[in-house]
Structures are given as structure tokens and as C-alpha cells.
Tripartite tricarboxylate transporter substrate binding protein (Phreatobacter stygius), 324 residues
Amino acid sequence: MTRFISTVAALLGLVLAPVAALAQPPLLNRPINLHVGFAAGGPADVLARVIAEKLRETTGQTLVVVNRSGAGGTLAAATVAKAQPDGANLLLVTSGHAGAPALYPNLSFDNQRDFAPVIALAESPIVVLVNGKSRYRTLQDLLEAARANPGKLNFGTGGGGATLTALSAMLLRKEVGFDAVVINFPGSGPANVALMGNVIDFQFDTLSGAVGLLSSGDLRALAVSTARRSSILPDVPTVAEAVRPGFDVTGWFGILAPAGTDPAFVGRLNAAINAALQAPDVRQKLAVLGIEPIGGTPQQFGALIASETVRWGGLIRELGLRVD
């Protein structure tokens, strides 16, 4: 009888566990707007929707993704910076948030003081790409050709001259020295088309922007920018391994709330998203996007923004980049 009761109790636990999860109160008693400063369909937007779907499943909380693209995400950031700190408005940012103060000197907000960090969501390396049929097999081959033929090779970056892809290219050129002409495209899509058409010799893009073309073989990755190899491209060496020890550039995504948001709410939201990032289905969806989860505490994300603001702000000012 004791064994029977234990078995029934265990089975009831399995049945009722999902119900208990759904019975948890939402994080907020009304829908939360998750503002994304980029167009629908891009990596930031898709990431936002993956997280929103998982939180609705696990907490019952409705998150409405609000796209307001333009000015490198600063339009959406300005909206959330002015919002009431009641939890109803959140902001999904990319690593471009760190360079915004130097690039846009007339911003209406401070990228740190006007926000409360919630969590670093995920990261995606910058990838040095060549055409799938290119004769360049390694990053060393490519850079040696650029040095042997000054000004003859050209490379692309997407999204203008001050995206993380462009800045990582400028940083690599500064640190290892190569003479190639940069061509700035309005986005990674046009740059990838140019690379596939042999209009340019190589390009820098986020893994999230190129993962589909890498899978198809239209493009080939020579190196990733992060300190460690990507689990999505485990056979591709890092820039640090190939040519420049210590080189480390990571594109990241995270969530911010308006400054003054209740720390208890931020803590609950952080815990819920950390749990979501560990879910196998979420991790699989992110891998398809070329994105790897990060997670961690609000304090860790705040420290990341602070250090990245110093790093990229210095390079942007050194290069004389500015958008008025």
C-alpha cells in the first residue's frame, strides 16, 4: 500500500507540475511592451519574440514586441528612457547601445544612467567571411594577400560605418595592419550579396546575419572575433588563434528597463529570463539564429555596458565617426 501511494503521488506530481507552472502569477498585472529598435525579422526582433513566447509559456506574462527601427536603435531607447519605471516598458538592446553616446552626441538620454540593467540575453560573434569558392582558405592567407597588394582588395561591412561589424574591422586593421578598401553597405544583406557576386573580396558580419549562407555553402567563415570558438562554428578558429592573440569582439543583446524600476521586479524578470535561456527549445531556436545565450545578473550586464561604452566610445572618437 505504501508503495502504491508513493507511485500515485509521483504520478500526480508529474501531471500537476505544468499546471503549477502556469498557475504562477504574471510578472506584471498587465502586458509588458518590449521595445526593439530594429526591423521585424532581424536577429534582435526574432530573439525578442523567442523570449516573449517562452515567458508567456512559463509565467503567463504577455510581452508585446514593439518595433521602432532607426538611428541604430536609439529611437526605441529614447522612448523607453522617458517611460514610467513601472515595468510596463522594456528595451532590447544590442552592443551598438554601448557606442551610441560617442556616435550620436545629441542623444536625449544617457545610455547608462537612464536605464536599469535587467539581463544580458545572448551573444553572436563577428565573422570574417569570404565567398564559398574563394581561394583564401585562412585569415592568414587573406591578410598576406592584402599586405602584398596594398589597396587592391576590398571588404564590406553592413549597416554603415559605425556598426559593431565595421568597428571590429577597423580594430583588426589597426591591430594587425592590412591595406584594403572598406565599402560600407546599408545592411548585411546587400554586403552578403556583393560577396557572393565577387564584388568584394571579404566582409565582416555577425554570425546571426550570415548563418544561413554559411550553412548553404554560399559563404565561408575564416575566423570568429570572440575569445573562444563558437559552439555553432566549432571548426572555425578565432582571430586570436589565427593572427592576433587577445583579440576579442562580441556582439551582444540584452534587456534594459527605465531607471528607477523596482529592483524586486527586475530580480523576478531576471530570474524568469535566466530560466528561459536554459530551456532546450530556446537554445535550439537561438542556435538556428547563430546566437548563444549568456544570462547572468543585472549587475553583470551593467558592468558589460560600462566597459563596452569606454572601449567602443574611444575607438569611435579616434576614427572621427559621428552622426548628428
